[in-house]
Amino acid sequence: MINLGMGLPPVVVGLWVCLTLSRYGPLGLLGLLYTPTAMITAQVIIAAPIITGFSGAAARKVIPAIYYS
Questions:
Q1: Which of 3, 9, 17, 49 shows the greatest Cβ crowding within 10 Å of its Cβ?
Q2: Contacts of 25 by beta carbon, 8 Å cutoff, 6+ apart
Q3: In the chain, which ranges are continuous DSSP H helix?
Q4: What confidence tier does 57 reach under pLDDT thresholds 50, 70, 90?
Q5: Distance CA 67, CA 61 (A)
């Protein structure tokens, strides 16, 4: 799942966030579309798999047992 997230284009994430936060979307009642909160949410969704993947690779280098557990 982490590698899949690394390959997501930012446009797809932005579209998903836009559809989720639009007026008739599941979270439309919150009124967050085109707000800094929505932008931060999209950036976190884009950055989380990259940070997780790099952190996991670094941890496997330091503690090889993590890879085998």
A1: 17
A2: 19
A3: 2-6, 10-21, 36-62, 65-68
A4: confident
A5: 9
